[in-house]
Design a protein that fits this description.
Layout: H1 2-15, H2 36-83, H3 87-101, E1 106-112, E2 118-124, H4 138-149, E3 153-155, E4 177-184, E5 190-198, H5 207-246, H6 249-256, E6 265-279, H7 281-286, H8 290-310, E7 314-319, E8 322-327, H9 336-360, H10 366-372, E9 375-391, E10 396-401, H11 403-414, E11 420-423, H12 424-430, E12 434-438, E13 453-459
Parallel strand pairs: 9-11
Antiparallel strand pairs: 1-2, 1-5, 3-4, 4-5, 6-8, 6-9, 7-8, 9-10, 11-13, 12-13
Helix pairs in contact: 2-3, 2-5, 5-6, 8-9, 9-10
Length: 460
Amino acid sequence: MSKHHNSQERSATVVTDPRRESGPAKAGDSLSDQSPRAEAGALTGSARDLLDRIGSAERVVSQLEQSQVLSEALAEIADTIHQSQSLSEAFARSVEKVVATLKARRGMLLIRNEEGELVTRASKNFEQTIRSARGQNLPMAIARHVVQGLCPILAPDARSHPGLGKFEVETAAGLGAVMCLPIVDKNNEGIGAIYLDGTANNPMFCPDGMEFLRRYAGYIGTAMVHKDLIERNARAERNWDKLRRYFAEDVAASIVAGDQSVEMGGDTRVVTVLFADIRGWTTLLEQLKPSEAVEMLNDYFSGVVDDLLAEKGTLDKFTGDGIMAFWGAPTPLPDHALRAVRAAVKMQARLPVLRMRWRQEGRSFAPKTERLMSGVGIGIHTGEVVVGNIGSPRRMEYTAIGDTVNVTARIQGVAKGGEVLITEETLDLIRDSVFVEALEPVKVKGRKQAITLYRLEGVR
């Protein structure tokens, strides 16, 4: 009986355990010891924390993916710019890629022209101009503002952006978000801008998007500098090639280096002038095809010009089948007269060699040149001339003008085929270096008194 009683007391003790009526679970209590409400609260807190962590991880992944997209797009744009055949092509293709990458509605690239005005060089989806209520072209106005102040604009919501208030963007339909960045040169001066707009709160209109535009603007600036260097080099090559056609290489190099003036105007110099002309050319020309005449003259002049430039002569002009050159300008030459007669001797020796080669090569005009061309007549005279770039700012020629030039042309007209005639003025400078034969004085047009001429027989 007592055993049964004790058993019941123990059972009652378990049922009336005071912990069941105490407050919230304490540390150390097992989950089975907590109430269902407490258990639910604990689970809810853990789930919320987990969801927050998942959301944070997803944002990080999204940012990484966005960065990857932007990096890949920049690499593609860099390749596009590098592979493009022209700046126009590079601008058009790269702007299209920028608009697509940043999910913009419109985009345009503006560059200053030679007058300093911003002009559109490439655009995407700008079929209609976006204007404010007062008619202002908003994209152009914003771009000018950005370039002038070198102040980038990032406006995910253009209507509430303080920097766009003065542009009345709230009156323009379809202008939800704006990004605009200046393009600067090596001196940090604004030379252009990249402008984008789109729907409000576009997730790509963000700091990462601006960094993307900044790097793109750098690519454009570099491309323009590169193209400018290429164009400068090309112009320099063209100028060098042009100078080498008229001057000896050391003279051309002196002009390129700035040691010789190539501005309009002239200087008075004492020079020696040479005129040369093919005798019998007019008759020969009547029997040549135009293509044969050009072929023959080009071959002849190629050799003659080499002779002139080898003696540091300046090629002035071609006169049909004739040629004019002078010595002593733009670079002064103390032996200008001697150089002129040495060049003349080389020129006279040139034609017989050419005739032989033309015959050996079977040129169609070879027999006619032997039959009708009696040689080259050359006249040389020394005196004062005005030399310099004469003409207009749009077209000028480095030439010599004056009575000395006219007299030389008249002397050349007197010379027979194979003759080199020089004047007393030239002979006085080279008397100890040449062999000459005095001729009877000759009356030439433009001179009252007859001119004493000398036939050049050789150079010591």
